[in-house]
Design brief:
It is built from nine helices and twelve strands. The protein is of the alpha+beta class and 332 residues long. The chain has two domains: 204 residues, no CATH class; 95 residues, no CATH class. The two termini are 38 Å apart.
Length: 332
């Protein structure tokens, strides 16, 4: 086997696409920070909060800067929920590393059934990754567990009884993959929304974003009441944040499929819920705008959409526009 056949190449970053999204809460939203401690009369469960600086113009047109505590939506909450919904929609296989949590985490030696001896072999891992285009695209977009290259070559070599071929197969696998392509930022109350409150009231407080909801749980056997108070984000609060998509030379041909997965994930979020207690009516959201732009190799605005449906219907054209811009950049 020649050295070229098994050579590992570093994927080249061609471009970075940013989707700036504005979402609005339709019902109360809870991203739980856990039970409140030490505040008499406080809510039993609180939303996650953070201190953030905002800059707004007052009625005289002067720029004012102020630090306030605000609720926010962690990027991990959005990405995790979107990923799990897409796993269900695409009917992706579930695996487990501990027999307790089952999810689509494709990796050698993970359990593929309740039987503790039934684990995914190295050869099966390669076959599942290569033979399903959906699985391949999904794992490149959202990321997958890392593999130990030496162990992979060694164990695959034992399975196929050919270490030279195992080395070649491993190099081909690594060269077809890249790091996680989709990055999701935390979403904070939109600057325009916060400044709108400031211009109306002259100040902004935490109470402008939160509400308290009283709930009661009744024991079906004893009929004993268990009242509690939930602190959650009010309906009609606007948040903004970014989805960042890394486009590599070995994944540029999958850009349209990446965009389709993202659009479908956003649609599933709108159709279900985000955060906790979704079965009780919490967490309904709607995406109000999606602005797309290229931020590398240079910043350039592409298109803006007013809904997920509008974005989804234009993905083919949008993907071609992005690739054309990246091709033009590469020729300069």
């Amino acid at each position: 086997m020649s050295q070229q056949t098994s050579q590992v190449k570093n994927p080249r970053l061609l471009g970075i696409v940013k989707l700036h999204l504005v979402l609005e809460t339709v019902t109360g939203l809870l991203i739980s920070a856990g039970r409140q401690m030490g505040r008499i009369g406080g809510a039993d469960t609180s939303n996650v909060l953070i201190e953030k600086v905002y800059e707004c113009k007052d009625q005289q047109g002067r720029q004012q800067s102020f630090l306030i505590r605000v609720p926010y939506i962690p990027g991990s909450s959005i990405k995790g929920r979107m990923r799990s919904l897409l796993e269900l929609a695409k009917n992706l296989e579930l695996f487990s590393t501990d027999g307790k949590i089952w999810m689509h985490a494709l990796s050698p030696k993970v359990r593929k059934s309740i039987n503790r001896q039934d684990v995914l072999s190295y050869g099966e891992f390669l076959e599942k990754l290569r033979n399903s285009n959906t699985t391949f695209i999904f794992n490149k977009l959202f990321g997958m567990p890392s593999i130990h290259v030496d162990d992979f070559v060694k164990n695959l070599g034992k399975e196929i009884n050919d270490e030279s071929k195992a080395e070649q197969e491993t190099a081909m696998l690594i060269n077809s993959l890249s790091q996680t392509s989709l990055l999701i930022s935390d979403f904070f109350p939109a600057c325009d929304y916060v400044c709108g409150i400031y211009n109306t009231k002259g100040l902004v407080t935490l109470e402008d974003f939160l509400e308290e909801k009283s709930e009661n749980r009744i024991d079906r056997i004893t009929s004993a009441a268990d009242p509690r108070t939930i602190e959650r984000v009010k309906p009609h609060v606007k948040f903004e944040g970014d989805f960042t998509l890394l486009v590599f030379d070995n994944s540029k041909n999958h850009l349209e499929q990446y965009m389709e997965l993202i659009a479908e994930g956003l649609q599933l979020l709108e159709s279900t819920y985000l955060g906790a207690a979704g079965s009780r009516g919490y967490g309904r959201i709607m995406f109000k705008s999606i602005e797309t732009k290229l931020i590398y190799p240079r910043e350039e605005r592409i298109k803006e959409y007013k809904s997920v449906g509008e974005f989804k219907n234009d993905i083919t054209t949008l993907s071609k526009d992005i690739l054309n811009k990246l091709g033009a950049q590469g020729q300069r």
